[in-house]
TrEMBL record, chains A, B:
Originating organism: Chitinophaga varians
GO molecular function per UniProt: DNA-binding transcription factor activity; transcription cis-regulatory region binding
PANTHER family: HTH-TYPE TRANSCRIPTIONAL REGULATOR GALS, LACI-RELATED TRANSCRIPTIONAL REPRESSOR
Entry keywords, A to Z: DNA-binding, Transcription, Transcription regulation
Transmembrane segments: none
Pfam families in the record: LacI (PF00356), Peripla_BP_3 (PF13377)
Domain of life where this protein originates: Bacteria
Name this protein carries in UniProt: LacI family transcriptional regulator
Segments forming domain HTH lacI-type: 4-58
Organism phylogeny: Bacteria, Pseudomonadati, Bacteroidota, Chitinophagia, Chitinophagales
Length: 340, 340
DNA sequence: CTGAAAGCGCTAACAC
DNA sequence: GTGTTAGCGCTTTCAG
């Protein structure tokens, strides 16, 4: 019972290939009786159509690529859930590609993707990515691309983002309201859309509250955890040490907590912290962590839905071109003493 | 310049299809000069072979399926990194399937996979899975399957696991050494290989230290976080409340910390906790969390390597059939007051 | 209502 | 060294 294909079914039933094929696809051309016979045997023999033959013929693979910087990060892993939720019912399969935050890796992946292996791409670019040619090339081949979270603004593809600038503004304003006057911003890239936006929101908030923007308070972290730890420690050892921190990425949570502990700085008394993070565990840290929680699941879901629309050749509305799903500032103890 | 295929290249170069094909695959039959011409044009036109045509022909897709309960879990997301690392160099693509801990979902996925979409499968079964027929069916179709972490012992497929029983034993013995006499075990399934093993190790340790095994101390948690919280709280409110906990799964960390806090129980003074977890953030919890850290990356990598071996028809050695990579007990404050 | 045949893009016998 | 051809499994005109 190996390799059951349409030919085998046809032979067994004394029908032609095309009749069987049509019966299986429930064509109106085929009589109910024949359909029943075909379906019965197909079920009995456990016939499963060969995905590649269909793909080759129809030039659609029912695969979508999800290109991510990394997967061991709660934002991205939750986003994958959203993507999967949106896509499963439509019969699409999710191929995960990891760039490991490398531009070269990203370019290689997008190249590989041109093999027709996938029908469309969900993309969140690496922190190194500034050039857009590799994505443009894919789009030129009519492979639908939808950006989510980390976008390339100049490209004409739908973008699903959160309100990075606004939420960084809110977080910064919150720290100011809590009495901070020397607030640091920790980014992970100077080019990345989300980091620029968040930094812009941070700077705007300082400006609106008549606080100076100091270069010394804006740190760009690396992918090297140990090095980041040194950078943050140095920041917190300065004479005019920051009394507030807006960290733009989850990975830095551990770094800041450890640095504070080593330097015997108390949170929130000496330093107040807010962090872009989706870690559920934020609530049980001590102090519990004030987070800007991104709508990871919703963003993944929305991005996948727009992509599916494109794959189904449905017209995109203006709303689909840029979807902004707000993040939520959840104030906890790390930024607010009075918080219970 | 759309749809560059071999035919187009052949036409342009006044060569036949097969000559071009052979040239691109660097066949010894083709002259160096021709190869050069072909390669030059292929590069210029940015020719990328159609993955489906090759797959259909050669009956290999260069895709592997990774079937997981969930992805928003540090063990699995790190394991994906290991898988990706092992597989990327070999040119394989990773398709992620999520069962969401559902047997029905798992069975549906394995069915879908029979379409030939993938060359092999890495599988970590859902907590509901007890039946093996769905996996057996796949193996009967000669789709190579490799289990990792959560295995089905009765099936004749390679298994990559950690030393669940031993590490649970170590964790339990550690708690006993710290003075615990009423130790609870929190599982998530009565059937899952890892939970049975861990529970066995726990019971063995109790026995070896002349402590009774009480049914009341063995809790099976659900997928419902709120309900788990109630269960754990109730456990900790008992007259003879446990003074130690071995939690078999990362998700329960938050639950236990919150329950302790709400009940004003101090860790480690009132309750000592060890948890199977790969959370980096464990170090900055207060108290910092004693973990049994699983070799997630290594397990994913090893599993993928064995699968690739099978796909390449290389013989498996006895060692490949069952690989056990030890976990590490990292003692921190949640189980040991004297820990700095 | 059913069947014959072409063709998706590629590879590998098998000629020449 | 190069070319011709068959065929992987499926879908879809187009004929009957």
């Amino acid at each position: 019972m190996k390799n059951v294909n349409i030919r085998a079914l046809a032979r067994e039933l004394n029908l032609s290939l095309s009749t069987v094929s049509k019966a299986l696809r429930d064509s109106y051309e085929i009589s109910a009786a024949t359909k029943e016979r075909v379906r019965a045997l197909a079920a009995e023999w456990n016939y499963i159509p060969n995905a590649y033959a269909s793909s080759l013929r129809g030039r659609k693979s029912k695969n979508i690529a999800v290109v991510l910087p990394e997967v061991a990060d709660s934002f991205f892993s939750i986003a994958i859930n959203g993507i999967e939720a949106a896509v499963k019912a439509k019969g699409y399969h999710v191929i995960i590609y990891l760039t490991h935050e490398s531009y070269a890796g990203e370019a290689a992946i997008l190249k590989d993707i041109q093999s027709g292996r996938v029908d469309g791409v969900l993309l969140s670019v690496s922190r190194e990515t500034t050039d857009t040619a590799h994505v443009q090339e894919l789009m030129d081949k009519d492979v639908p691309v939808v950006f989510f979270d980390r976008v390339l603004e100049t490209l004409a593809a739908p973008k699903i983002v959160t309100d990075d600038a606004e939420s960084a503004y809110k977080a910064t304003a919150h720290l100011i309201a809590q009495g901070c006057r020397e607030i640091a911003y920790l980014g992970i890239s100077d080019s990345l859309s989300i980091c620029r936006q968040r930094m812009a929101g941070y700077m705007q908030a300082l400006g609106d509250h008549q606080l100076p923007v100091h270069q010394r308070n804006m740190l760009t972290c690396t992918t090297d955890g140990a090095r980041n730890f040194q950078l943050v420690k140095k920041l917190l050892q300065r004479t005019h040490r920051p009394d507030g921190i807006v960290a733009s990425v989850e990975k830095l949570t551990t770094t800041v907590y450890q640095a504070c502990r080593q330097l015997q700085l108390r949170m929130p008394e000496d330093v107040k912290l807010t962090c872009f993070s989706n870690l559920e565990i934020a609530t049980i840290l001590q102090p519990s962590l004030t987070t800007i929680t991104q709508p990871a699941f919703e963003m993944g879901k929305a991005a996948a839905e727009v992509l599916v629309k494109m794959l189904e050749k449905k017209p995109l509305t203006a709303k689909d071109i840029r979807i902004v799903i707000p993040s939520e500032l959840v104030v906890r103890e790390s930024s607010s003493r009075q918080h219970k």
